[in-house]
């Protein structure tokens, strides 16, 4: 609540008073920093969370990928740490993680990687379709964007 209202300092005060950090508390503070446009700090917290032995879940990875996208840190998102952990956690096929990967790759200008992840997803949601369509528009590939939009409609998304 504090972070969503722009009071990341207040969020920290609450976080530091909690008896032990778990995946929920760590993910919440990471997402708070993403919400407050502090992507680099969110990535630093992700590393610290892991150093403390807390295993990330799908929501954590969504936040980390959003942090990467917000600071256009393709190598952070593609890097061994995040990508390998997503695979090892068995979350590569998770629609939310997959959509976040598509969005991160697309925002960072790697439309090819975004397309690869998009095609591997067992199902695509509105976020992944929109990310792909919007990035094709940004790359001045209007024809491809329209094709994807038609495909999306055919699949009742």
From TrEMBL:
Pfam families: PPR, PPR_2. Keywords: Repeat. It comes from the Eukaryota. The keyword Lyase does not apply. PPR repeats lie at residues 22-56, 94-128. NCBIfam families: PPR. This is Pentatricopeptide repeat-containing protein. It comes from Sphagnum jensenii.
């Amino acid at each position: 609540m504090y972070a969503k209202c722009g009071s990341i300092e207040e969020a920290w005060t609450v976080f530091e008073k909690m008896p032990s950090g778990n995946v929920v508390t760590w993910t919440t503070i990471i997402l708070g920093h993403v919400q407050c446009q502090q992507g680099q700090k969110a990535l630093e917290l992700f590393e610290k969370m892991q150093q403390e032995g807390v295993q990330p879940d799908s929501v954590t990875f969504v936040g980390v990928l959003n942090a990467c996208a917000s600071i256009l840190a393709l190598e952070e998102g593609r890097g061994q740490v995040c990508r390998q952990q997503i695979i090892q956690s068995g979350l590569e096929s998770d629609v939310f993680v997959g959509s976040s990967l598509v969005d991160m790759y697309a925002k960072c200008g790697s439309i090819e990687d975004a397309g690869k992840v998009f095609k591997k997803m067992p199902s695509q949601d509105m976020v992944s379709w929109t990310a792909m369509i919007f990035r094709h528009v940004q790359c001045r590939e209007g024809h491809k964007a329209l094709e994807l939009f038609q495909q999306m409609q055919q699949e009742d998304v």
